[in-house]
Structure formats: C-alpha cells, structure tokens
Amino acid sequence: RSTDDTHLQHMPLSTRIGMRLLFHGLDHGRFVNSRRTEQVRRPSLTSRAGRKFDDPTHACERITAFIRTYNIDCTQLREPDLRNYPTMNSFFTRRLERGARPPASPRDPTVVSSAADCRLTVFSSVADAKRFWIKGKHFTLPALLQDSALAGQLHNGAVAIFRLAVEDYHRFHMPVDAVVGESRSISGTYFTVNSMVVRDKHFDVFTENKRDVTTLHARHPLTGAALPVAYVQVGALLVASIRRTAREGKTLQRSNELGYFAYGGSTVVCVFPQGSVEWDEDLVRNSE
C-alpha cells in the first residue's frame, strides 16, 4: 500500500490451473455443484487434511519445502529454528516476534487496524459489498451472521474483508478496542475463499462455508456510544480449525491477538454499524 506496487499472490502453477478449470471452466457452475466436487468440499475431507498437517512425520522437510514454494519471510519468527516446529500446522500457526506487526497510530483510538496479514477489501455498506465484490445470489447479513438481532443492529453497515492466503501469517487480531463477546459456530461447506470464487454468482462462499461469528462490544471513541462489531471467521478448503485464544469477556486492545486459523486459506469479515466507520479513500478505490 505504501509503495503502490502490485504483487501477484504466490500459488503453485498446478493449483492455479486447477482452480481456473474448476471455478471458471466450461459450465463450471454445474460442475462445482456436482456430486464429485461436493465430496471435495465435505468437512470430512478437510478434517483428514487437518490430521495430515498435524502428523510429525518428516515435519521439518515439509516445512522447508512449504517455505520455499511460497517464498515465506522467516526473519520475524518468534521461534526461528524450524526443528522446533513438531508439525506442519505448528509452523502454519506460527507466532511472530513481539513488535513485528505494530498498529498504525497506536495512540489514536479512532483508527481501525487490519485484522490480519491479508488482501483487504472494504466497503461503506453491505449494499456496496454486494454490488462490487460479493456476487453470491443469496448473500445477506442475516444469512452471514445467523443472528437476526445482530443483523438488525448492523443493517447495511460498513464491511471489511480480510482474505488470508496460504503463505500468510495466520493469526487474527483485533481491529478496534473491545470486549470479546459470545462466539457461535455455524456449520457449512468448504469452498475456497479465493477472490475468483467470492466474485462468482454461482457460489455463496461466506454464507455457505463453515464459520464462527464473534460479537465484539466496542465503544465509539468520540461519543462513547456502544458499537457492536461482527467478527466473522470463515473457514475454507483445507482449513482444519478456527481457534480463539482470547476468552469471552476479556477486554482487548486494537491489534491484540484474538485467535488463529489452522492450515489453509481463510478469511475474516468484519461488519461495523452503519455510519460508524469511514474507510481511507485509497482502500475504497482499490476495492471497487
């Protein structure tokens, strides 16, 4: 963002071609909803993949190959010795050294921070998000949150979508100061969260995928008014688990860790009350 450079997401060629064929090939809508591809998206397959990533066999060799394939920067690891990661997942959920991700303007409570290392898209309203980015035919706030009361409080609110790629640091953090509220798990399938799928009308990724919804109880930094924030952790193809490291009722500061995703790509979706957030113009422009 600071340099205005464009970086292509790292992805093995075979994976890139496979996703293109699967999600943008001839008659892909019917193909992806076929019985064979439905089997690929079942939770049982993702659970089996999770067990594989928790297998300590040849862990160091697999981690080294993973780093090489995705060109991962290891200079900020809290534990720099790869031999001390017993499994692939232990490296995937790696911690960074303290201070590696300092929040912007740490003394300014009006600033909203990124929830994760990600590809970020932001929208001033749910309507804008549906118009520019989320093309699933059945996407609505009540469908995403599965909570009519919370959806009503956040009606047409501002949306931020933090999409994590497989090579990213996979711990997620607080965008604002808040008290951690209730978390609910919503069962679902495991579509990939790649943007080519999110932007395809055939797929309702955010409302069909397995996800956890955590309510953050924040306060407006200028008025003190209560501000509920929906913090949706979306699982994806091969994401074995969503784990929170902060308990309900705990007060966290902006940028504090809230939890992590195990192996795979994944996404955090934050929804703020209407009119409570004004995104930087360059982020809005790039999101459109």
TrEMBL record:
Keywords: Decarboxylase, Lyase. GO terms for molecular function: phosphatidylserine decarboxylase activity. The keyword Nucleus does not apply. It comes from the Eukaryota. GO terms for biological process: phospholipid biosynthetic process. It comes from Rhodotorula graminis (strain WP1). This is Phosphatidylserine decarboxylase. InterPro entries: PS_Dcarbxylase (IPR003817). The keyword Lyase applies.
